[in-house]
Structure formats: C-alpha cells, structure tokens
User: What shape does this take?
Amino acid sequence: MTTTKNTPARVGRERTCTQCRTTYRSPRNSSRYCSNACRMKAKRGTAPKADPKGGPDGFSIITKALLIAGFVGPITRASSKAQPVYALTVPFEHALDELSFQFNRKGWGYVSRAEFTEALRVDGIEDFHARSVEAVDLNRRQTRRRMERARA
Assistant: This one.
C-alpha cells in the first residue's frame, strides 16, 4: 500500500536574479530575472546590485565546500548594514586534511596547502580561534590589573 503526499512538487530550479541577486525558482532555463520589475530595471540600464564578496554567493569552490561541511561559518551577527564575518570553525590543519580527503574521494584531485590558504585569503575567511576577541580582551585587562596590584 503506497501513500501519496498532498504537497506540491517544486517547480523549476533555483536561480539567482542578475539584477537584485535574490534566489528564485523558475521553470524556464532562459530566465534571468526574478520579476518584471527587475527585468525593467535591467532594460533601463539601472546598475545591478554588486555580488557580495563577503558572503557565500561570492566564495570560491573550496570555501563553499568548507561552508557546506560546517568548517566555515559566520562569527558575527549580520546586521542590515554590515556583512557577516566568516571564519574557520575548526583548526586549519583539520579543515585542510578533511577537505583534501573529500576532494580525493570524489575524484576532484588534491588540494594543496598553498591553494587552500589562497582560497581562504581571497574569500576573507579568518583563522580559527579557540577564544573570541572579547574573551582575549577580557583576559588582557585582567592580567593588566593583576600586574598593577602586584606593583602596588
């Protein structure tokens, strides 16, 4: 006995609008814009929104693979004015070894240390830190206070 779901199937594939950079679904392969408004903006010559290099849409293949695996993630809250800052969520060596293993397993080739480092640098991915910047500053202030007390 088979059961069927009453949920409609997804129509089309996900695409990115060339004008506003939003993601939308289109059943057509030739679709470039998410709406008539974006199509008309492009026709009138309005400059499209810049592709944010600080976000996942502008990342290289290596960084996207790390993001999917959970080895890269945002470390600051994204406000409406600022782009989130992304960093490694695991130590550098662990991320490099795991990514190399995954790429080799899928037959995509070996990821060198130089290639890995360059991809992280270009995409603006910060290095892994076990403690946050705030925790480091607090420790620095506490150490300074202890030293001042010891001198007195």
Q: What stands out?
A: The mean pLDDT is 78. Helices lie at 36-44, 61-69, 92-106, 113-123, 133-151. The two ends are 83 Å apart (CA to CA). The chain has five helices and four strands.
